[in-house]
Amino acid sequence: MKTDKQIKSLMGAGVLSAVAASLCCITPVLALIAGSSGIASAFSWLEPVRPYLIGITALVLGFAWYQKLKPQKEEDCCAPNEKPKFIQSKTFLSIVTAFAILMLAFPYYSKIFFPSSEKQIIVIDKSNIQIAEFTIRGMNCEGCEEEVKHEVSKLNGIIKADVSYKNGNAQIQFDNSKTDIAEIEKAINSTGYTVTKSEIKNK
Fold it and tell me: Domain 126-201 carries which CATH code?
């Protein structure tokens, strides 16, 4: 039936646009799983079009539901009363809609996939403690923040890492007898996000 084909096409388009809308935030998690931090920022260029992709997803799935729920025409009522295939059912459309919502909400819960970056640091000489601020280009969600924290925390001597995608920066507290600003910058750049400025802050 033509309507069923339309609904299947709409469902497919809805899922694709939902996945595309969150691809920039799914990639850091995939990078963590794959152990390849360099791909974390691969789809950050999609962030400016994310609102449009969310709108397309809502419109497409909304229209699919309209097609599914609208009253049947008289000629359709007279057709043999066959049970629709699962892929053409409201249940399947509900599953597709729920999946799309999960994808669209991914940026808000992506940080749960990252391990805790807190570790016990023993500082022998407090005069070695420094705070550096890094301006970072390319971050656009909490998943990006967690990927940067995860990479920086692998270095020895990192005491605390505060990363903000909203401010586009990271403040890193570290023991300069164990690591330095250049090593931290290298770790951040290894994620695929780019440090555009770095400076030591006064304690």
Answer: 3.30.70.100
CA torsion, ordered 6, 12, 13, 18, to nearest 10 deg: 150
How do residues 75-117 score in pLDDT, each as one tens digit? 555 555 566 677 777 888 888 888 888 888 877 777 777 766 5
Domain ranges in the chain are 2-110, 126-201
Q: What is the pLDDT of residue 37?
A: 58
Q: How does pLDDT run across 127-152, given as a tens digit for each residue? A: 889 999 999 998 888 888 888 998 99
Determine contact, residues 187/151, Cβ cutoff 8 Å: yes
Q: How many other β-carbons are positioned within 10 Å of the β-carbon of residue 123?
A: 14
